[in-house]
């Protein structure tokens, strides 16, 4: 962006719109006041070398995989595998929902004897593939992962690794015992934005990193969908929200700070989504003629049939007709998503703060917030010689000496190969690196092996202990 356009952009932004302001613009605005010059075309970081390479796996042989859990995430990985048939083939599918299993198995030409219901059926037949993808719900990770490792499969394991610290550590031990590769789906590590952020810190551009402020806005409708009505609403059945939602963030903090976390103190609670806050006369479901439906920002009718968010849970096969979606909301099991947000069996906090101290006295403050209009992680990194301010897709680097900001704002969605790769582009590079690691039997090709991923899970369990006990916890 040239200086003239940059000034024009800033001029178009009102002070009151700060929450929607891209970090680069907000930071530049603040910096201009502090006597920094504005970035010009020389101030772009976009050309910095990054491992943004072709998504085609570089392999010397085709690998075979079994997908366990043909839901939303299973389809992300299976969809990627389908694009590179020379490198990887889906040879088995397991899902307790027969229609999901059939759909994925048909798409990949899976033979009848390798179509399974419950995950345990996969392991009743002799090993028939190189690897398994475990993309079942959080409480159905541990048992299939332990069994897969015992039978000699490598594993692509969805996060969170497992619901308890002991189970997470058991999986680590099992991976070592059977000498297998376990890649944890910490997809943000593979997103070009986070890779660039980390590379800038590692280059010494901000001197020595001293502290980080990191915020994860969940977005209010996403909170209602996943953590009030949906699969992750009950911390006892799945995992505490600090792991279910934010293990990515703890992992990114650990990865960027590059030191072990020593202590953590956390707080937070469920403030809004409980029966005592239900408006007068609100029925159990939005579809039961609720008198408040038209004004309620959490209305299921509004979120699904009008805004058309989070439709992947309705098995719509691409049909986005509002009447069809409404029919789903009236029909079990989908009608659980029609429940009033004040009348659900949920217990996950809607705001959660934690403070961490890392080796060497470095600190991080992390907030997970339900009540935000949009997602997009915000990160500020304070160093002895500089500062970084990022909004999840672009960031500005401030150098205290040169007082010339530099901007990284590469649009990953505009790189043709990355179009459709979710999580800031991180989903498919993770799948590529997993295929390459299995083909070469080299876990070194992954940045999220079980060994490095387990630490951030241990941080999450410590945070939850602290939130419940009110005490600072050792990690
Ligand atoms: N990496 C990420 O960023 C990310 C994002 C979203 C979800 N996740 C995680 O991915 C996992 C899957 O989430 P999802 O959104 O795909 O859920 P989903 O409900 O869409 O898919 C899970 C599938 O597993 C199937 N299943 C349940 N029990 C089973 C069993 N016993 N045997 C075989 N299949 C079974 C379900 O029928 C369903 O089709 C969860 O652990 C979730 O936390 C990770």
What's the helix and strand layout?
Layout: H1 3-11, H2 23-33, E1 63-68, H3 72-83, E2 88-94, H4 98-108, E3 115-116, E4 131-134, H5 142-150, E5 154-157, H6 165-177, E6 182-184, H7 192-202, E7 209-217, H8 220-229, H9 241-244, H10 247-257, E8 261-269, H11 300-306, H12 322-329, E9 351-358, E10 363-369, E11 378-383, E12 386-390, E13 395-399, E14 406-408, H13 427-440, H14 450-469, E15 473-474
Parallel strand pairs: 1-2, 1-4, 2-3, 4-5, 5-6, 7-10
Antiparallel strand pairs: 7-11, 8-9, 8-15, 9-10, 11-12, 12-13, 13-14
Helix pairs in contact: 3-13, 5-6, 6-14, 10-14, 11-12
The structure holds nicotinamide-adenine-dinucleotide (NAD).
Key attributes of the depicted protein:
single chain; 475 residues; alpha/beta; Dihydrodipicolinate Reductase, domain 2; Rossmann fold; 3 domains; six-stranded parallel sheet; 14 helices; 32% helix
């Amino acid at each position: 962006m040239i200086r003239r356009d940059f000034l024009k952009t800033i001029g178009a932004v009102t002070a009151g719109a700060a929450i929607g302001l891209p970090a680069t613009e907000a930071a530049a605005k603040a910096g201009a006041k502090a006597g920094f010059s504005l970035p010009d075309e020389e101030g772009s970081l976009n050309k910095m070398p990054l491992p943004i390479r072709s998504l085609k796996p570089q392999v010397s042989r085709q690998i075979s995989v079994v997908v366990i859990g043909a839901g939303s995430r299973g389809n992300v990985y299976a969809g990627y595998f389908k694009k590179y048939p020379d490198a990887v083939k889906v040879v088995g599918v397991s899902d307790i929902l027969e229609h999901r299993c059939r759909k994925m198995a048909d798409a990949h030409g899976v033979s009848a004897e390798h179509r399974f219901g419950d995950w345990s059926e996969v392991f009743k037949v002799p090993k028939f593939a190189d690897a398994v993808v475990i993309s079942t719900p959080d409480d159905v990770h541990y048992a299939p992962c332990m069994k897969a490792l015992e039978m000699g499969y490598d594993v692509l394991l969805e996060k969170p690794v497992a619901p308890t610290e002991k189970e997470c550590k058991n999986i680590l031990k099992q991976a070592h015992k059977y000498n297998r590769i376990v890649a944890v789906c910490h997809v943000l590590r593979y997103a070009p934005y986070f890779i660039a952020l980390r590379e800038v810190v590692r280059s010494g551009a901000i001197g020595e990193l001293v502290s980080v402020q990191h915020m994860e806005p969940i977005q209010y409708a996403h909170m209602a969908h996943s953590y009030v009505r949906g699969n992750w609403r009950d911390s006892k059945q799945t995992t505490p929200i600090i792991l279910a939602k934010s293990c990515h963030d703890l992992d990114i903090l650990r990865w960027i700070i590059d030191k072990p976390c020593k202590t953590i103190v956390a707080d937070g609670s469920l403030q809004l989504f409980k029966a005592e806050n239900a408006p007068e006369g609100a029925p159990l479901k939005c579809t039961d003629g609720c008198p408040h439906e038209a004004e309620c920002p959490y209305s299921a009718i509004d979120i699904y049939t009008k805004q058309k968010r989070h439709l992947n849970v309705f098995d719509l096969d691409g049909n986005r007709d509002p009447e069809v979606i409404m029919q789903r909301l009236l029909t079990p099991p989908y009608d659980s998503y029609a429940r009033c947000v004040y009348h659900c069996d949920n217990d996950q906090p809607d705001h959660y703060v934690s403070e961490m101290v890392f080796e060497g006295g470095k600190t991080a403050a992390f907030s997970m917030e339900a009540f935000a209009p949009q997602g997009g992680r915000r990160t500020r990194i304070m160093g002895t010689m500089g500062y970084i301010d990022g909004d999840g897709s672009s960031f500005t680097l401030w150098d205290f000496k040169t007082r010339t900001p530099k901007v990284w704002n590469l649009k990953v969605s505009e790189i043709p190969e990355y179009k459709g790769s979710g999580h800031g582009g991180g989903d498919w590079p993770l799948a590529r690196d997993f295929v390459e690691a299995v083909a070469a039997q080299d876990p070194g090709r992954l940045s999220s092996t079980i060994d490095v991923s387990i630490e951030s899970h241990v941080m999450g369990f410590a945070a939850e202990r602290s939130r419940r006990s009110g005490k600072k916890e050792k990690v």
